[in-house]
Structures are given as structure tokens and as C-alpha cells.
Design goal:
Layout lengths: L2 H29 L17 H29 L3 H24 L3 H30 L2
Helix pairs in contact: 1-2, 1-3, 2-3, 2-4, 3-4
Pfam families: MAPEG
Organism: Janthinobacterium fluminis
InterPro entries: MAPEG-like_dom_sf (IPR023352), Membr-assoc_MAPEG (IPR001129)
């Protein structure tokens, strides 16, 4: 398996793990009789600050997927993983680090650190886009 495919699977797995964490938190509240199953705000703000950060961390994953996942899929579909493999795991690490930072705190410093990890992902995406465009226009 290429590093590109591994990063794509890792990205999907991480997104699912965050979703499962949201589900587990809500299920515990429902089974504990503290909330109705249909009483949750989508953003988690009505549960706790952590639940809100968890919902946003999950949302950040699916908001970025069309770009990051899309570029990984383009590489796989066009047999050009040599362009994405070198930075694929770094992108995934930055994605997970951004989420962890989001889960740990909503403070100013944590926001700056989250932005740093987001900037790494954006930089990698722009690099990949540049490589694809220059590779395909060279022919």
C-alpha cells in the first residue's frame, strides 16, 4: 500500500473515531437519562465546551476532506502517488495534531497552535496541487 493510500485511510479512520466519540458522549447522556435522544444541538454547544470542541474537530475533518482527501484520491486514481507519498503522512499527522489541540483547549494559544497545524495541511495541499499541475502541463 502506498503512503498516499495509508494517509487516506488514516484520515478516514480519524474522522470516524471523532464521530464515534461524539456518539459515545451523546449515548452516555441519553442512557443516563440526562438528555433526550433528539435534544442535541449539532455543534455540541448545549452539552459542554469539550463537546463543542469535539464537534468542531470532527467538522474540521470533513470540511477539509474535499481538498486533502480529494488530492490523495487524484493521486491514487492517476497513479501519481509518487507526488503525494513524501508528505502524505505529514499531512495526516498535522490533521490529527490539529484535532488533538482542538480537543485539549479552546484558548488563544491552542487556537494559534491549531492554525499552525492547519497551515501545514494547507501548504501540503498547495504543494500537491502545484506538482499535479506542473506534471500534467509538462506533457
Amino acid at each position: 500500500m502506498s503512503l498516499t493510500a495509508l494517509a487516506l485511510l488514516g484520515y478516514i479512520t480519524w474522522t470516524i473515531l471523532l464521530l464515534l466519540a461524539i456518539a459515545a458522549l451523546r449515548l452516555a447522556l441519553v442512557l443516563g437519562g440526562r438528555r433526550g435522544a433528539n435534544s442535541f444541538a449539532a455543534d455540541g454547544a448545549d452539552v459542554s465546551p469539550f463537546a463543542q470542541r469535539l464537534a468542531r474537530a470532527h467538522a474540521n475533518c470533513y470540511e477539509s476532506f474535499p481538498i486533502l482527501g480529494g488530492l490523495l484520491l487524484v493521486a491514487l486514481a492517476t497513479w501519481q502517488t509518487r507526488l503525494t507519498d513524501p508528505l502524505a503522512l505529514m499531512m495526516l499527522a498535522a490533521r490529527v495534531a490539529q484535532s488533538f489541540t482542538h480537543l485539549l483547549s479552546g484558548g488563544v494559544l491552542a487556537s494559534l497552535i491549531r492554525f499552525f497545524f492547519f497551515a501545514i495541511q494547507l501548504g501540503i495541499a498547495l504543494r500537491w496541487l502545484f506538482l499535479f499541475l506542473t506534471h500534467w502541463t509538462a506533457f
